[in-house]
Design a protein that fits this description.
Radius of gyration: 25 Å
Number of domains: 2
CATH class of the largest domain: Mainly Beta
Number of helices: 4
Oligomer: single chain
């Protein structure tokens, strides 16, 4: 309770000093990451900030399969590679976007290129020979069917009330 009361009694100058401390701390950490890894802290936490592309992925398990969908708008399906080996699904590819506008008084070109790779470790209950992938409207869908044994082993566990 003392801490929260103290917070209300702080002067604006004290709050600015505290905010400056965090700003200075952030700059120091960014500098450290630059020296060690060659990029800022923000670029490691949110790679898309520095121009990299990493597709958002949803994973859901049904009774018969594991289904993965990855959002990849604007990526040509020919530039996507899906592989499954030793219980690991790898989705990789390359995004190439070029936008050009030509008018009588200006010429504007924007290019964006980047490679991505996502790896997902899956249980050994997947039938690797039957893995299938489809691409539609910017979404890659991968279906990984479960083995017969895995489907039979699944059972509902009763809950007892103590």
């Amino acid at each position: 309770m003392e801490l929260s009361l103290r917070r209300y009694n702080e002067t604006p100058l004290e709050r600015r000093r505290e905010n400056r401390f965090f700003t200075d701390f952030e700059r120091t950490m960014d500098s450290l990451f630059d020296e060690v890894f060659g990029g800022s802290l923000v670029s490691y936490v949110a790679p898309e900030v520095r121009g990299m592309f990493s597709p958002s992925i949803d994973i859901k398990e049904t009774g018969n399969s594991i289904e993965i969908s990855a959002e990849m708008p604007g990526i040509n399906p020919e530039n996507i590679d899906v592989s499954f080996h030793d219980g690991m699904l790898t989705i990789s590819g390359e995004k190439k976007v070029e936008k050009e506008e030509k008018e009588t008084d200006y010429h504007h070109v924007e290019r964006s290129y980047g490679c991505f790779s996502r790896q997902i470790v899956l249980p050994d209950t997947v039938e690797s020979e039957k893995v299938a992938a489809t691409y539609k409207n910017g979404v890659l869908s991968v279906t990984l069917p479960k083995t017969e044994k895995a489907m039979k082993e699944a059972r509902k566990v009763p809950i007892s009330v103590a």
